[in-house]
Amino acid sequence: GTYETLLVERRGRVGLITLNRPKVLNALNAALAAELTAVLAAFDRDAALGCTVITGSEKAFAAGADITEMAGKTYPQARIEDFIAVWDGFARLRKPVIAAVGGFALGGGCELAMMCDLIIAADGARFGQPEIRLGIVPGIGGTQRLVRAIGKAKAMEMVLTGRMMDAAEAERAGLVARVVPAADLLAEAMRTAEAIAAMPLPAVLAAKDCVDRAYELTLAEGIRYERQAFYALFASADQKEGMAAFLEKRPPAFRHG
Ligand code: HXC
């Protein structure tokens, strides 16, 4: 279909979503949140796809929640609308999502990138949580995910001062998987997504699920969880194929099942 706030395409087994509100640096309004989460859910259900890339423009991945839309909200309105809840669908996605971040990833834009499974950044990317300057705090998980990603000291500094990190600092701090030249950002993100989408899907789903558990479980529980997932993969055709192909010194032909 066509979208008001997104460009959406499929390239082989990879779904590509480009945030497309260029006049406001891809500010995340309600329409964008609804369209983005709906497309992500549809891609997640689509057996022909194995991975999704979300990107923006070279100037901005997303400059945060749409301040024009938020400015006049009252407390009861915010509470009753619960306008952040639209993002909860992210936690139900089972296939990997890559954020390809060029330019500004601020506020909700930084939080959106952090909700993705991994971030690949252009050398010109800037990450920040400037909400404090607006009299609010991050609202889509930023205070929690940033601490886990980069540690308390840097997270606290960013959330209290609104200071932006450049791509090099973000990579050193562990926020991003890789920094690439801006001109190569989409190609590199697509290459990574294609590599993931070519992997046997049962193992991909298990890998993402297990890594995510590390945020929520104790080490002992997480290790038990991983072991069950590990054993369960011996019920997949792709495990038989992957190991047979290795032993027969030929490339595997995965069925994603
Ligand atoms: C609405 C925005 C916007 C935003 C930019 N624009 N960010 N509109 N919401 N978050 C608009 C500007 O008003 C401007 O519109 C146009 O986009 C271009 O932006 P400029 O400011 O002119 O560009 P520049 O001078 O290059 O500065 C870029 C910038 C700055 C540093 C990124 O735009 C900025 O500080 N933006 C706000 C960042 C921010 O505070 N984000 C957190 C939002 S709160 P016009 O009409 O003038 O051309 C948040 C909470 C999330 O994210 C959790 C709850 C859901």
UniProtKB/TrEMBL annotation:
InterPro entries reported in the protein's UniProt record: ClpP/crotonase-like_dom_sf (IPR029045), Enoyl-CoA_hydra/iso (IPR001753), Enoyl-CoA_hydra_C (IPR014748)
CDD domains, per the entry: crotonase-like (cd06558)
Keyword Transport included in the entry's annotation: no
Keywords: Lyase
Keyword match ATP-binding: no
MF (Gene Ontology): enoyl-CoA hydratase activity
EC number: 4.2.1.17
Pfam families xrefs: ECH_1
Protein family according to the UniProt entry: Belongs to the enoyl-CoA hydratase/isomerase family.
Protein name: Enoyl-CoA hydratase
